[in-house]
Structure formats: structure tokens, C-alpha cells
Amino acid sequence: MYQKNIVYHSQSKDQLTLRQLLQKWLIPKKWQHFLRIQHDVLVNGIYQPFNTIIRENDQITLNFNFPPRSQQSYLPGTDKIDVAYEDDDIIVVNKAAGKKTHPNKTDESDSLMNDVENYLKNGHPYMVHRIDMETSGLVLISKTPYLVPIFNRQLSSKTLHRQYLALVKLNKPIPNSGTIDLPIAQDPNDVRKRKVSADGLSAVTKFEVVKKNEKYALLKLNLLTGRTHQLRVHLSYMGWPIVNDPLYNADLKRDKLFLFADELTFQEPFSEKSKKIKAKLPKDMYNLLCAYFKQPKSSSNPDN
């Protein structure tokens, strides 16, 4: 069973019923039904009907005393993890390039989720979203399966927002900002790759130029959808392949893929508050950026 105790603090003047509050917290309808019929939602220690008005500083207790939608299990890994943020319910990890987010087989133990399994000791990680093996940066992981569908709803509603930084080669001119709205499908000629295709799934990427010269640009990227290799495919198709991309950039790869998930924004579970987690570029990426734009290296990172 997972229990959550919340002291209610309204972020607006609106009065909400218990039902409206659970809906606002994105708790699935089926789980709301279980909470009601099992009397597993308490207001100030007492079960109350769902039409009860919730007052400021009310103590709300949620007992998730029913099976979660899915379970995940991982063998413990061996690598240390870089924790960007952690609380009782979630952990945000800064994944290294070349590390898989999750194992493909149950007997594998070399992915990020395996390493987090080892780190948590008395708990287990539950995957909320993933990033490509070659991509580095922030990954949000739940410590309970009961938060996964809540975060899935945040992903669908764009409340959970992911931002990336990418260094691209300018094979074609690039505007200062824009939106790439091109469907993506499996590449029939290479099982590893995806491609822009009219019969593919909808894929939308927003971009903004942070800095550029004649040959390269540093982009800030925001995903409006989450297709496999979406950023890499979109940018390559537009004539702006990511530096060191082994699949979508014809240039020789000299280092790791310059695509970094630098910012995560999400609604804190059981709250109306927004949480933003940021990460600085790894030192090697920052040094490469300085070299491409021929600016002096410093101990700080001005772009993050």
C-alpha cells in the first residue's frame, strides 16, 4: 500500500469539492472509485463524501490500498547515478550519454533503471519517460507505481514539460525560432532509424536559437510529442543535424551526441505547484561548445 498525507493549500480562491480536487490532481477515475468505496480517502482523519468542500489547511490522507496498474522490476546495476533532485516520491537523475534508460531484457543490468534500483536500496524505480541511449540529461523516475499514471496524464496534457539543448551543424539556413510539425515513421531500410514520412505518427518540435555562427547553432528544443528519435530526425530532415549524431549526421562522429535534456518542469503530485529542475551542461559538452563558438572557457556555464 502507498499512503500520501497532504496539507491542502489552495493556489486560487476557488472552492473545490473532494472529487474536484482528486480530478485536479489527475488521479485516475478507477482509483477515485476505489478510494471512495473503500473509504481510503480521509479529510482530517475522517472519511467524507466526495462532495465535501475542502478548506485551507485540511489534512487529506490517501491510502492506495489496491493494486497499481503495472509493476516493474529490475536487477540492481553497478554504476553510480548523478542525482539532480530527490524527495520521498520521485528522483530526477542526470543520465550519461551511452547509457540506456531501461533494459530491453529482464536479465540485463546495465541501464539507468538498474543503477537506480541499486541506489534506492529499500525501494524500486518506476519509469515515467525515457530518453535515447545516446542522449544525456534529466530523467524523471517515480519511487511508487501509483504516481506513474498521474505523470502519464501530465505528459499527455503537456504539464510535464521537457527541454533540450542541441548543437547542430547548419547545412541550411535556420530562422531564430520555429515549429517543426512533421510525422515520423520507422525507416524501412534500417531498423535502428526513424524517418519523416507522411504515413507516420504526428510529431511536433519547437526550437529557438540560443547562439549561432556561420556553421553551427546552439538550439533550445521543446517536445510537444514524444516520438523515438524525434529531435534527431526533425533536425536532420531540416538540414540541421546534431553534432556527433551517429545515425542522422553524415559527418564523422568525434565525441558523444550533443543533445542534452537540461530542464524538466512538472506539477508536483497532489499539489497545484509547478516544479522546475535544471541541469548544467557536462564539462566536456561545455568545452566543445566554447571551441565551436571560439569563446574562452570559464568555470561557470552562462547558458544554463
From TrEMBL:
* GO biological process terms on file: enzyme-directed rRNA pseudouridine synthesis
**Which Pfam families does the annotation name?**
PseudoU_synth_2 (PF00849)
Q: What EC number(s) does the entry state?
A: 5.4.99.-
- Xref: SUPFAM superfamilies: Pseudouridine synthase
What's its top-level EC category?
isomerase
The record's section on CDD domains has: PseudoU_synth_RluA_like
Question: Does Isomerase count among this protein's keywords?
Answer: yes
Signal peptide limits: none
- Fetch the PROSITE patterns from UniProt: PSI_RLU
Write out the catalysed reaction: a uridine in RNA = a pseudouridine in RNA
UniProt keywords, alphabetically:
Isomerase
Domain (Pseudouridine synthase RsuA/RluA-like) spans: 89-236
- Where are the active-site residues found? D132
Q: Which family does it belong to?
A: Belongs to the pseudouridine synthase RluA family.
Q: What does this protein do?
A: Responsible for synthesis of pseudouridine from uracil.
Protein's recorded name: Pseudouridine synthase
